[in-house]
């Protein structure tokens, strides 16, 4: 998932909001993959967050729940799925 550490465009959700929402749904952050940083200061501006779902949460999830991807997109977070995911 694309996580921004500073606002890069209007109405954008930032990294902490996305991580909090995913953790509430039973996911945990596995690692960051640097997307890009400020070439002058070196500050990381955006990274891909790789998340994993806890097995017990997956087993408890009902088919009627709103998809976590839709919840994230509603907050302005950019979500890209790898092939074969979801």
Structural notes for this entry:
- The protein is α+β, with helices and mostly antiparallel strands and 86 residues long.
- The protein has one domain (2-74).
- It contains three helices and three strands, in the order βαββαα.
- The chain has helices spanning 15-24, 55-60, 68-74, and strands at residues 2-4, 27-37, 44-53.
- Strands 1-3-2 form a three-stranded antiparallel sheet.
- Strand 2 (27-37) and strand 3 (44-53) form a beta hairpin.
- The longest helix has 10 residues, at 15-24.
- The chain is globular, with a radius of gyration of 14 Å.
- The two termini are 13 Å apart.
Question: How would the blueprint of this fold be written?
Answer:
Elements: E1 2-4, H1 15-24, E2 27-37, E3 44-53, H2 55-60, H3 68-74
Antiparallel strand pairs: 1-3, 2-3
Largest sheet: 3 strands, antiparallel
Termini separation: 13 Å
Residue stretches low in confidence (pLDDT < 50, at least 5 long) are: none
The helix tally amounts to 3
Shape: globular
Radius of gyration: 14 Å
The helix-and-strand class reads: alpha+beta
Tell me the number of structural domains.
1
Mean pLDDT across all amino acids: 76
Proportion of beta-strand residues: 25-35%
The helix content, as a percent range, equals: 25-40%
H/E element string? Answer: EHEEHH
Strand order of the largest sheet: 1-3-2
């Amino acid at each position: 998932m694309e996580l921004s550490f500073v606002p890069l465009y209007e109405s954008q959700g930032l990294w902490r909001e996305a991580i909090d929402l995913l953790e509430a749904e039973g996911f945990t952050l596995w690692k960051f993959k640097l997307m890009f940083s400020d070439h002058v200061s070196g500050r990381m501006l955006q990274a891909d967050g790789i998340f994993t779902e806890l097995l017990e949460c997956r087993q408890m999830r009902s088919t009627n729940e709103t998809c976590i991807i839709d919840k994230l997109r509603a907050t302005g977070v950019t979500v890209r799925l790898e092939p074969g995911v979801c």
